Amino acid sequence: MNTKYPLLWSALSLALGVVLYDGFPSFFMRLPWVLLLAGGCFLLFAFLFKGKRALLPSLLFLCLLAAGMGRMFLSDQYWQQQSSWAAGSEGRWTGIVKEEPSVNRDGNDYARYYTELESITYADGVEKSLSGTAFVYDTQPKELYHTGDRISVNGKMTALRIYKNPGKIDLEGRYRSRRLIGRIYPDEPEKIHFLGESGKYGAGRLADDIKGKVETSFAPYMDPLRLHILMTLLFGGNYNEIPEYIMTSFSATGIIHILSVSGSHVALLFGFLYFLGKWLHLPRKPVIGISILLVLFYSLLSGLVPPVIRAAVMGILSVGGVFLEREKTALNLLGAAVAGMVLWDPFYLYDVSFQLSVGASAGILIFYKPLAKALSAASFLPQWVREGMALSTAAQALTIPVMLYDFHTFPLYFIPANLFVTPFLEWVIIAGLVAAVLTPVFLPLAGGLLYAADYLLWAGLRMNLHLSSWPRASLQTGGMTAAQILLYYVTVAILYFKKSLSAVPAGLYGALGIWGSLLAVTLFLYAAKPDALLYCPDLGPDQGAALVMGEHKILYYKGGSIPSHTSDWEWKSILGYEGIFDADILILNLEDVKEPLPLTLAVPVKEIWVTGGRAEEKTPYLLPNFEGKVRPLSKGRLRMGSLSFFTNGSSFLLSEGDRGVYFSGRRGLEKISFPPHTVWVASGRKNGTGIPEEEMDRVQAEAVIYGGSRLGSSFEDVDLFEFKNYKAANVYREGMQTASFHGRWELEDTSWL
């Protein structure tokens, strides 16, 4: 174990305590298990160190582990003090806007206010004080309210729906961190009412006012779209007003992080100021001190929201460490910053931007110099190219598992994007910041800089669009399993700490043993792949399933009566996580769809089969961009290779040999023989009447997955299935369910994911 980074190891110990308590709270409420864990940790350190040297590290680790667990316990207690009882209440809500609203003007207009709740007044005049925050929506925004404004609205609060699917950004942690307890939509025709300025959140309001004046002064010199992108580059903000094709191109090339205020922004500002001072022959340390002050002022201008604070700390530490040639000191300070942020808010650990910031900062500090030294052998490349490649690769080294887990793709062209596109955008950012300073002092010079920034931004956007259109711009991998993530980081750790581990033979043997065990688990999971897999994610009121059977991939989607954009997003996320990037057929059940919402096809499909509705009327609205074959099905049999399909226009049976998958709709299949090995994907019936017992007896399914229904009858159906000795689960209540076929269908436990 390397003891040169005590603060870094301390941060990891705290983080482990938070994760363990949050993942297994009931486990740690039992003292015997806590003592067992403590004893195991002591033995581990005794294995890595010899004799009395093990005592102090063990005690320190246990104390920090307990501190992390205790901090998460206090966070849980604080969360329980929120007025969660208010979810479902209806009345007049009063609160204070905490930040500038998120505005969407593409399609369905709305403004969303992150609001600190103060009180609710019921219809009978009774008023109650509230603790917590809520999203307040204005579906037809004509006037926007600002940070610190006190507002009121009549409406009903709905509880926040947490979709229980693996491989996604942890929204629950984000909601708990922000003390969110629900969403409020105003009653018609009454809208949001302004009650005056509260006097709170003055720093945020000042920052918003400054940014508003800056944007107004920039407007005469730039194209409106590029002006909005520039303001997003400078201060972060509302991404809904940036066209989707631009956002997609940034994601494909791996530089989407530049559109949000992150450590790279702070590093850029820090580096520009440092080299400016060096060019002017100013002393190094005073320049670094002044640069830090200006970075802190930029953070204030950006609103002092947690992501900005985190970016300032990480950027100053990583880049400052490199410039001062104190990488080891900077790593310890990085550990101290992470520990401080975790103690302040343990839910930072579940924030993907936090994970990426820490990973990129640590990667630069650890790998930049070794990579730059290795690339120095490529003397045919210019120095700036070698340094850019080293910096880009170092920043990616520790973030790859995070990107694959959350986004399921890896940008293959991140090096050319960082070499050629990023410099354009960096000069745009620098020009924008300098212009913001010069505007009130010398407007002509500021205007000239903005004209140049507009041209550079146009060129950078065009170049990035061209780069993202290249073949295989993104490597579609699917999400990494826990074993694969651990294997990756253990491999990196062994390669980096090999000298330290070799100094303690037991440490090297232990590390290699852990690595070998993880490799064996990964290979076993890959080799034990079942003959067929059925994924049924939690899509709220909608229902979806993905079947992988041999070489065939079949998608099933049954829309609910209530349109749901979130269901569409969850659908795309889970397909990417499971590595399903194409399909033979998409089966659409439209029998419950009244108001179709566009369904974004996350993967290319060859054909779309439509049941339960008039395809020519509803399909164009659901799939506006699909140009392939759409086949309406009312009743009959079809074949595709070894697969056989049967439908009555509502339900659908897919079979191959002695195994099958039954997708039931409003009308069950009658007068048909079901395969002996059948998995049943059930859904709610019309008017919530439930599934008849005779159908349950007729199907004789080995496993039943109930999804896409919050009706009381669906839960009763599951109870009845279990009473009849069926293995049944409800995805709305229990989260995503997976069924695998190894001679028979079995439900897999995915709750630990």
Describe this structure as you would to a colleague.
- By secondary structure, the protein is an alpha+beta fold.
- The chain has five domains: 6-80; 84-200, OB fold (Dihydrolipoamide Acetyltransferase, E2P) (Beta Barrel), CATH 2.40.50; 206-476, no CATH class; 482-527; 532-748, Ribonuclease Z/Hydroxyacylglutathione hydrolase-like (Metallo-beta-lactamase, Chain A), CATH 3.60.15.10.
- The chain contains 24 helices and 25 strands.
- The strands form four sheets. The protein has an eight-stranded mixed sheet, with helices on one face. A seven-stranded mixed sheet has the order 17-18-19-20-21-22-23.
- Helix 1 runs parallel beside helix 11.
- The longest helix is centred in the N-terminal third of the chain and has 26 residues, at 55-80.
- The protein starts with 5 loop residues before the first helix and ends in a 5-residue tail after the last strand.
What descriptive keywords fit this protein?
OB fold (Dihydrolipoamide Acetyltransferase, E2P); 48% helix; single chain; 8-stranded mixed beta sheet; 753 residues; 18% strand; 25 strands; alpha+beta; 5 domains; 7-stranded mixed beta sheet; 24 helices
Mean pLDDT: 78
Helix segment count? Answer: 24
**Inertia-based shape:** globular
Largest sheet: 8 strands, mixed
DSSP E strands, number: 25
What is the beta-strand fraction? 15-25%
Structural class by sheet pairing and helices: alpha+beta
- What is the gyration radius calculated from CA atoms? 28 Å
From the N-terminal CA to the C-terminal CA, the straight-line distance is: 29 Å
Uncertain runs are none
Give the strand line-up of the largest sheet. 16-15-14-13-12-11-24-25
